[in-house]
Specification:
Layout: E1 14-20, H1 24-35, E2 42-43, E3 47-53, E4 56-63, E5 66-73, H2 75-92, E6 103-104
Antiparallel strand pairs: 1-5, 1-6, 2-3, 3-4, 4-5
Length: 106
């Protein structure tokens, strides 16, 4: 399992989303492969980590029919990155209608 590094010294908000899909592992791997051309991505069939920058990262977990997303980013970038991740995921999942509801971590 890939360990999520704590972004040192930066207090950032976190957004979470659980996406119901029979293709959770497939979409996780597609997103990770897509962004591996720009970022130091780590992934396997069940977990992935995309470090967008020193101040932003996406952690993905495929567990059966659920793709869980955890987005850590600065307040200024959080909403934009939520939309970027959502747009990419929906593009890969064009054969089905995904419902992605971001929520703040408790």
């Amino acid at each position: 399992m890939i360990e999520a590094k704590i972004l040192e010294g930066i207090d950032m908000p976190v957004s979470l989303a659980d996406v119901a899909t029979a293709n959770a592992s497939r979409y996780l791997q597609q997103l990770c492969k897509h962004w591996s051309h720009k970022f130091q991505v780590e992934f396997d069939a069940h977990t992935g980590k995309i470090p967008f920058s020193e101040e932003a990262r996406l952690i993905l977990t495929a567990n059966g029919d659920i793709l869980s997303l955890r987005l850590d980013a600065t307040t200024e970038r959080l909403q934009t990155l939520e939309q970027v991740v959502e747009d990419h995921l929906k593009r890969f999942a064009f054969r089905e209608e995904l419902h992605i509801d971001w929520r703040p971590a408790a």
